[in-house]
Amino acid sequence: MSMNWRQMGLGALALLTCLGCVSGQTQAERGEELYKYCEHCHGEAGEGHADFRVPAIAGFDQWYLEAQLQKFRVGARGDHPLDLDGLRMRPMSRTLASDAEVTQVAAYVANLDPVDPADMMTGGDPGAGRLLFTQPIDGSQPCVDCHGDRGEGKRDMNGPSLLHQSDWYLVAQLIKFRQGIRGADNLDVSGITMRPQALALPDEQAILDVVAYIETLDD
Ligand code: HEC
Ligand code: HEC
Question: Which site among 77, 121, 144, 147 is 20 to 30 Å from 160 CA-CA?
Fold first, then answer.
C-alpha cells in the first residue's frame, strides 16, 4: 500500500470539504430553504394566518423557537387529541431532520422583522388586565416574574416574550394550558410551570382582560 494513514486522513478530509463546496450552502441559506415548508402556513414574513389559526412567529427569540420545535418533534406539545392546532403543527416539525436543521430554521425565523398582527378579540379590559399581569393572583406568581415587566420574556425562567403575537392565539393558549391540552405532558418541563398560572386566572373574562393588556405592550 503506498498511502499511509496520514495521507488517507487528508484524502478523506479533502473529500468532505469538497462535498461541502458542492452543496455550497451557508447556514443562513439552509435556514431560508427549510422555512419554505413553514411559509404555507406561517406566511412569508412569519406573520401567521388567523383564518387557519396559525400564529405569528417572526422575530421570536431563537431559544424559544428551538424549544417549541423540539417539543413538537418529541410529542411534548401538539400531541393531545383535543389540540387540533398543535396536531397540525406536529408533523411539520418532523420535516426537520436533525437538531442542526431545527437550529437553522429557528435562526432564520428569529431574524425576521417582528410583525404586529391585527387585534381580533373584543370585550377585554386592559386596565383590569394590567393588575392580573403585574400582581399575584391568589398567592400565585405574577405573570411579570416569568414574562418580564413589559412582556419581553425572561430566558432564565423559560418564559417567552408575549409581544408581537395575535390576541386570539394568546387566548387560545391560555385556554389550552387550563384544559391540560398544553403544559401537561411529563416531557414538557417548562410548560408544566405555566399551567398553574393559567389556572390561577379566575375566569374567561380574566383571560380576555390579561390578553387585552398584553396587546397594549406592543404599542
Ligand atoms: C400546516 C400548517 C403549518 C406548517 C406548514 C407549519 N406550522 Fe408551525 N404552527 C402551526 C399551527 C396551527 C401552530 C399553532 C399550534 C398551537 O396552537 O399550539 C403552529 C405553531 C408553531 C410554533 C409555536 C409558536 C409559539 O408561539 O409557541 C412554532 C415555533 C412554529 N409553529 C414553527 C414552525 C416552523 C419553523 C415550521 C416549518 C418547519 C412550521 N411551523 C410549519 C401550523 C403550521
Ligand atoms: C412560573 C413562570 C410563569 C408565570 C408566572 C407565567 N408564565 Fe406564561 N409561560 C411560562 C413558560 C415557561 C411558558 C412557555 C411554555 C412552553 O415552553 O411551552 C409560558 C407560556 C405562556 C404563553 C404561551 C406563549 C406562546 O407563544 O405560545 C402565554 C400566552 C402565557 N405564558 C401567558 C401568561 C400569563 C397571562 C401569565 C400570568 C397570568 C403567565 N403566563 C404567567 C412561564 C410562566
Answer: 121
Ligand 2 atom nearest to CA at 142: 5
Ligand 2 pocket check for 70: Cβ under 6 Å:
no
Nearest CA to ligand 2 atom 33: 143
Instruction: Count Cβ atoms below 10 Å from residue 18 Cβ, excluding itself.
Output: 9
What is the spatial distance between Cα 164 and Cα 170, in angstroms, rounded to a whole number? 11
Residue range 25-63, pLDDT digits in tens: 888 899 999 999 999 999 999 999 999 999 999 999 999
Determine contact, residues 76/185, Cβ cutoff 8 Å: yes
Do the beta carbons of residue 181 and residue 190 sit within 8 Å? no
pLDDT score, position 6: 55
The total of other beta-carbon atoms located within 10 Å of residue 191's CB is: 20
Q: How many Å lie between the centroid of ligand 2 and the Cα of residue 30? A: 31
Amino acid occupying residue 74:
V
- If one counts every other C-beta atom within 10 angstroms of the C-beta of residue 195, the result is 18
Kindly give the number of the ligand 2 atom that is closest to the alpha carbon of 201: 38
Q: Ligand 2 centroid to 171 CA: how many Å?
A: 12
For residues 88 and 108, the answer to whether their CB atoms sit within 8 Å is no
Q: What is the whole-number distance in angstroms between the Cα of residue 92 and the centre of ligand 1?
A: 8
